[in-house]
Design a protein that fits this description.
Blueprint: H1 2-6, E1 11-17, H2 32-45, E2 49-53, H3 66-82, E3 87-90, H4 94-103, E4 107-110, H5 120-127, E5 131-134, H6 152-169, E6 177-180, H7 189-197, H8 199-203, E7 210-211, H9 217-222, H10 237-250, E8 254-257, H11 260-272
Parallel strand pairs: 1-2, 1-8, 2-3, 3-4, 4-5, 5-6, 7-8
């Protein structure tokens, strides 16, 4: 997995939520056989990693206890690992991460960037595994109230730098760190678009960047019906693919998506075309969300 983090990309992380209340597919893969089957299909469709989460982080979601979270994810991790599927664990709890790594997970994807559990840095350091540090300001039930920024890109960059510095100070190797701007986490739609448009400012931090826009509500609002009804979650795939390709073409190391095949196919076209890069927009260019 060291080579995966150091690879030029693009890396595709497939989402596997084993929760009853995920915003996208809550309950669909709560059964062990269904979850394992879907994980195997994600891998066959082109996922380099299958990201397993046992606690919903949708806006407003209530927390569950660590034992429940572990009970949901550990059997799935063991089965997928035995089937040869590389797995990451989507958790903000050190206890769950440690158990998941013991069960075969090879990456910790921490939506809190280490803020939710101060012991997470020790777990990652001792395991020597990659650690995705996402920008985060608070748990799901309160994050809507925390979406206030002077300059969202500059503020996210500053706060991610603080998380990186804390990880390094705890002994986590620099080449084990991946960053994530945390689209939708204490962010409005306008914030998400601004972060996407100015992604190079985050890439300048010098760490691999994971981009996760898949099926999120700001895409649904962009594609709303004439009466203002947001596009349903399952009908946001084309927009997800577009955001994923644009992010990779800008320099993102990887993308986290639900529909792996569609994104993997689009990225294969991008690679075959010679990995063309996005040209920065001219100064003063008006972006969606700034009008």
């Amino acid at each position: 997995m060291t080579d995966l983090v150091r690879a030029p990309g693009p890396v595709v992380m497939g989402v596997l939520n084993v929760t009853p209340d995920s915003f996208s597919d809550g309950g669909r893969y709560a059964d062990l056989d269904a979850a394992v089957g879907h994980g195997v299909r994600l891998r066959a469709a082109g996922a380099h990693l299958v990201d397993i989460g046992g606690e919903s982080t949708r806006p407003g979601a209530e927390r569950i206890d660590a034992a429940t979270e572990a009970d949901r994810v550990l059997p799935v991790i063991r089965e997928l690992t035995a089937a040869g599927v590389p797995v990451s664990i989507d958790t903000s709890r050190a206890r769950v991460a440690e158990a998941a790594l013991g069960a075969g997970a090879v990456v910790v994807n921490d939506v809190s960037g280490g803020l939710a559990d101060p012991d997470m840095a020790r777990v990652v350091r001792d395991a020597g595994c990659p650690w995705v540090l996402m920008h985060w300001r608070g748990h799901s039930r309160e994050m809507r109230e925390l979406a206030s920024y002077t300059d969202v890109v500059a503020d996210v960059r500053t706060e991610l730098t603080q998380r990186i510095d804390a990880a390094l100070a705890a002994g986590v190797a620099a080449d084990r760190i991946v960053i994530d701007p945390g689209l939708g986490f204490a962010k409005t739609a306008a914030h998400n678009w601004e972060l996407s448009a100015r992604l190079p400012e985050l890439l300048d931090l010098g760490y691999p960047l994971l981009f996760g826009a898949s099926r999120k509500s700001y895409l649904g609002r962009l594609l709303a019906a004439p009466d203002g009804t947001p596009r349903p979650t399952a009908q946001r795939e084309a927009a997800t693919v577009a955001t994923s390709v644009l992010a990779v073409a800008t320099g993102a190391w990887g993308v986290r998506v639900h529909d792996v095949r569609a994104t993997a196919d689009a990225l294969a076209v991008w690679v075959a075309t010679g990995r063309p890069r996005m040209v920065p927009a001219p100064a003063g260019h008006e972006r969606e969300g700034q009008r």
